[in-house]
Amino acid sequence: MEQLPAEPERLREAYAYPDDRVWVRANMVASVDGAATRDERSGGLGNANDRRLFATLRGLADVVVVGAGTARAEGYGPAQPGPSGRAPRLAIVSRRLDLDFETPLFTDARQRTILLAPENAPANRLWRARENADVILAGEDRLDLAVAIQELASHGFSRILCEGGPRILAQLVTAGVLDELCLTVSPVLLAGDGPRIVNGPPALKPAELRLTHAFRDDEDFLFLRYSRR
Ligand SMILES: NC(=O)c1ccc[n+]([C@@H]2O[C@H](COP(=O)([O-])OP(=O)(O)OC[C@H]3O[C@@H](n4cnc5c(N)ncnc54)[C@H](OP(=O)(O)O)[C@@H]3O)[C@@H](O)[C@H]2O)c1
C-alpha cells in the first residue's frame, strides 16, 4: 500500500476537489473498533500525519462546516491560511446559538464566521449572532442540512468540507448530500461506548461508497478516501 504523500503538492493533488460541481467532503478519524472520540475528543485519535492531512483538506476547501458540539469540544478558533495564503470560511451549525462571541473564533476571523441556524432559533441569540457573524437560516426548528448546503453553494462555496461531529455527519448522510468521506483509521482498540463517526437515526437509503484511494504511514495509520457511488 502506498505511503501518504509527504510532498505537500502531491498530497493536494491526491485530494483535489472536482472542479465542475459542488462537492461535500467529510474528514473524520476513528479507532479500528469505530470510536470517533477518545477522552471525548477526536484529537487523541490522530497523529502528525492526520493533522497534516486535516490542514491540507482545509486548505483545499472554500468553507468548513462544523457542528457547535465539535466547535465547543475542540475549542475551534479561526481557520488559519494554508501555503496558498487562503483560509476557508468556518460555518458553525447551531440551533441554540449559545456561543461565546468574545472568543477568537468570532473576534479574530479574517472573514466573518458563518452561523447555520434554523429560522426558529432563539430570537435574542439570533440578534447577537447577526452582530458577530454572517447568519444563514435554513429549516424551521432544526437546520435542514440539505438546504444549508444549497445556500452555501449559492454564496459561491462549492468546495465544502465537513469536520463533523458525528451528529452533523449523520444528517448529511441521511439527507443524501455527502459526496465523499476521508477517514483516518487510528491503530488502536478503545472499546467503551464512544460514538461512531456517524451518529443518528439509521439512513433509509444507505450511502454506498467506492474506495478512491488508500494510503498508510509508518505508524500504521490508514488514510482512506471514499466517494459516493
Ligand atoms: N472522530 C472525528 O473525526 C470527530 C470529528 C468531529 C468531532 N468529533 C467529536 O465528536 C464530539 C462532538 O460531536 P457531536 O456529534 O456531539 O456534536 P456535533 O455534531 O459537532 O454538534 C452537535 C450540535 O450541533 C448543533 N446541531 C446539530 N444538528 C443540528 C440541526 N439540525 N439544527 C441546528 N443545530 C444542530 C447543535 O448545536 P447547539 O447545541 O448549539 O444548538 C448540536 O448540539 C466531540 O467529542 C468531538 O471531539 C470527532
Automatic annotation (TrEMBL):
The protein's UniProt keywords, in alphabetical order, are: NADP, Oxidoreductase
- Keyword NADP applies: yes
Which GO annotations describe the biological process of this protein? Answer: riboflavin biosynthetic process
Domain Bacterial bifunctional deaminase-reductase C-terminal, chain residue ranges per copy: 23-222
Q: Which InterPro entries match?
A: DHFR-like_dom_sf, RibDG_C, Riboflavin_Biosynth_HTPR
**Stored Gene3D superfamilies:** Dihydrofolate Reductase, subunit A
Which superkingdom, per the lineage?
Bacteria
Q: Which pathway does it take part in?
A: Cofactor biosynthesis; riboflavin biosynthesis
A Pfam family recorded for this sequence = RibD_C
Specify whether DNA-binding is a keyword of the entry.
Answer: no
- A GO molecular-function annotation: 5-amino-6-(5-phosphoribosylamino)uracil reductase activity
Q: What is this protein called?
A: Pyrimidine reductase family protein
